[in-house]
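A quick aside before the break. I want you to see a complete sequence-to-structure record at least once, exactly as it would be stored in a machine-readable document. Don't worry about memorizing anything.
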Amino acid sequence: MSFAYNSRSRQMKYKYEIIRSARKSVSINISSENKITVHCPWTMHITVVEKYLSEKMGWIDKVVKRNAERLADNDDVIEYRAVYLNGEKFPLVFCDENRVGSDAIYVRSVDDISELYKACFSESFIENVYRNAELMAMKPSSVKIKNYKGRWGCCDAANNLIFNYILFMLPPELQKYVIVHEICHTICYNHSAAFWALVAKYEPRYKALKKALAGYNFLISLY
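That is the input. The structure line, written in tokens, reads:
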């Protein structure tokens, strides 16, 4: 159980949300859209929270600035004038058909993007997942594509892998990182040191790729 509320004191330059729970430590999360969330124990006083925020203000400023610049660079995507495909931007054209062209992505509505992408790219993506799993000597029970809010993929207790179709918008190296990440969950179901060591075995650049992937999180809230 947790409890959340919004706060902004005269001393703090950013609005933030506090989520209190039974945890013992305090942490800060900044989303790709610059939503700041503080996770802290039930009994932590607001003055302690704001002291912690003040101590981290240099880091917060850096992240907020970087996110703001990235969002500004993607205002055409946010305003549905363009859309990503394999890491490249294409004009998004609204018309009376759904079609992937060499010059643009054509759709009847924003809601049709998911169906178009899944119809055109799911099969090859799923084949890629199985190909990587074979190279890693691991066997997922099944691979599916769906619309997700808040995550790029998951592995359930039965080793079924489910991926967000928005992955098709990302550069191939980030698609592969998510694929490797989820395949590794068929062996390690948590994010322990053993899990990350397994990921590193098949994707040594995972730390940089994980950081780069976070820069595309804003896409999940768009579609």
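Two observations worth writing down. The chain is about 40% helix and 20% strand. Residues 3-73 form one domain. We'll return to this after the break.
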